[in-house]
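Long-time lurker, first post. I've been practising inverse folding by hand and with some scripts of my own, and I keep getting stuck on stretches where the C-alpha cells seem ambiguous. Below is the full C-alpha cell string for one chain I'm working on. Before anyone asks, I'm not after the true native sequence, just a reasonable design that respects the backbone. If someone could post their per-position residues I'd love to compare against what I wrote down in my notebook.
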C-alpha cells in the first residue's frame, strides 16, 4: 500500500537510535557497552513487556553525550521520516533520562531543537519533553522550571516511562503549571496501565491527547466518552506487539477502536526498537488488518486534526491527505 502523508505525533527521539548508530557513537565517545557486536545487541530486542524494553532503552542512551550527538540522532531520524512521507512531526524527548547521567539539559535541548530547526524542506516540527512517571513529581517540577526558563521553543509536555503503579494524578501540579505556561498537554496512558489512568489523564491532568490509550477498551463508558469528545489517541501498533500488550498484529484492537468512533491515529513510538517507522506501521496495519481505503484515510485525517499546528498548516496538511486519497 502507498502510505498516506504522515503526521507523526508519537515518536521518542531516543527510540530512533538505531543499533548501528549506538555502536558508532559508543566508539566515537569511548563509551564501553556490554555488547560484543551488532548481532549481540540486536539479540536483546526481544522484549517481555514495557519495563524490560525500558531497561535497554535507558542503557543505550549512555552513548548520547553531547549536543552534537543529540543533533545527529535527530537529523538521522528526520531524514528517515521524510523518506517515509512524514510532513509534520511532534518529537518526544526524555530530559530526566539524560540529566540523571550528568548530561546538561542545555546540551539535550540545543542538539535536538537545532536539528529540528533544520528539518527537511516542507516538514514542520515541534518538541515535547516528557516527564518520567517512575521518578518523583518534585523532580518533574524542577525540570519543568528549567524547561520554561530555557530559550528552546516547546510545544507541550508529556508523561512516559513505566506506567503500572505510577498513576497520572501524581503529576497534577506539574500539568497545572505547564498549562499556565501555555504548553500543550499529552500523556501516555492505558498502554500497560488500566483504563482508569486514561480517565485520570483527562480529568486530573487535563490532557488534550492520550498516547496509546488502548486499554480504554476495557471500559465501555470511557470508550463512549472518548468518542463523544473526540479525544485523540496516538496508537502505536508495532510497539504494542513488541511490548506484548497485544499478542499479534492480527489481534490489534485498531479496527475495534475505529468502529467505536475513536479519534485514533497510527504512530511509531520507538521505531528503532520495534521494527519500523510510521510508514511501516501504516503499511502493516492496512495489510494485516485488511483496513479499507476509507479507514486508512480516517487514520490520516485523525492525525492531522490531533496535531498542535496553526490553522494555516492544518489546512495544508488536510489538503495533502486529500490529494493522496484522490490520487
Ligand atoms: N512505549 C513507551 N511507553 C512508555 N514510555 C516510553 N518511553 C519510550 N517509549 C515508551
Ligand atoms: Zn511512547
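-- Answer (accepted) --
I ran through it position by position. Result:
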Amino acid at each position: 500500500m502507498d502510505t498516506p502523508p504522515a503526521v507523526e505525533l508519537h515518536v521518542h527521539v531516543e527510540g530512533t537510535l538505531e543499533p548501528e548508530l549506538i555502536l558508532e557513537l559508543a566508539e566515537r565517545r569511548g563509551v564501553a557497552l556490554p555488547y560484543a557486536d551488532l548481532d549481540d545487541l540486536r539479540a536483546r530486542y526481544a522484549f517481555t513487556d514495557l519495563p524490560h524494553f525500558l531497561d535497554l532503552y535507558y542503557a543505550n542512551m549512555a552513548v548520547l553525550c553531547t549536543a552534537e550527538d543529540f543533533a545527529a540522532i535527530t537529523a538521522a531520524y528526520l531524514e528517515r521520516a521524510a523518506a517515509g512521507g512524514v510532513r509534520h512531526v511532534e518529537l518526544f524527548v526524555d530530559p530526566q533520562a539524560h540529566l540523571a547521567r550528568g548530561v546538561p539539559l542545555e546540551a539535550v535541548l540545543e542538539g535536538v531543537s537545532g536539528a529540528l530547526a533544520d528539518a527537511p524542506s516542507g516538514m514542520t516540527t515541534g518538541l515535547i519533553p516528557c516527564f518520567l512517571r517512575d521518578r518523583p513529581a518534585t523532580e518533574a517540577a524542577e525540570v519543568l522550571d528549567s524547561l520554561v526558563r530555557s530559550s528552546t521553543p516547546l510545544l507541550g509536555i508529556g508523561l512516559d516511562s513505566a506506567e503500572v503503579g505510577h498513576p497520572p494524578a501524581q503529576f497534577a501540579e506539574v500539568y497545572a503549571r505547564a498549562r499556565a505556561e501555555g504548553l500543550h498537554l499529552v500523556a501516555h496512558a492505558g498502554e500497560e496501565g488500566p483504563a482508569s489512568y486514561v480517565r485520570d489523564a483527562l480529568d486530573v491532568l487535563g490532557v488534550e491527547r492520550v498516547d496509546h490509550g488502548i486499554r480504554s477498551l476495557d471500559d465501555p463508558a470511557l470508550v463512549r466518552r472518548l468518542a463523544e469528545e473526540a479525544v485523540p489517541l496516538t496508537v502505536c501498533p508495532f510497539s504494542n506487539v513488541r511490548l506484548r500488550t497485544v499478542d499479534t498484529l492480527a489481534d490489534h484492537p485498531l479496527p475495534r477502536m475505529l468502529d467505536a468512533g475513536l479519534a485514533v491515529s497510527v504512530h511509531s513510538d520507538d521505531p528503532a526498537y520495534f521494527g519500523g517507522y510510521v510508514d511501516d506501521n501504516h503499511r502493516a496495519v492496512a495489510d494485516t488488518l485488511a483496513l479499507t481505503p476509507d479507514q486508512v484515510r480516517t487514520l490520516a485525517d485523525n492525525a492531522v486534526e490531533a496535531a498542535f499546528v496553526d490553522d494555516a498548516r492544518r489546512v495544508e496538511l488536510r489538503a495533502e491527505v486529500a490529494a493522496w486519497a484522490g490520487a
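A couple of notes from the structure itself: The first strand starts at residue 6 and ends at 12. The chain has one domain: 6-16+64-326. Happy to go over any region you disagree with.
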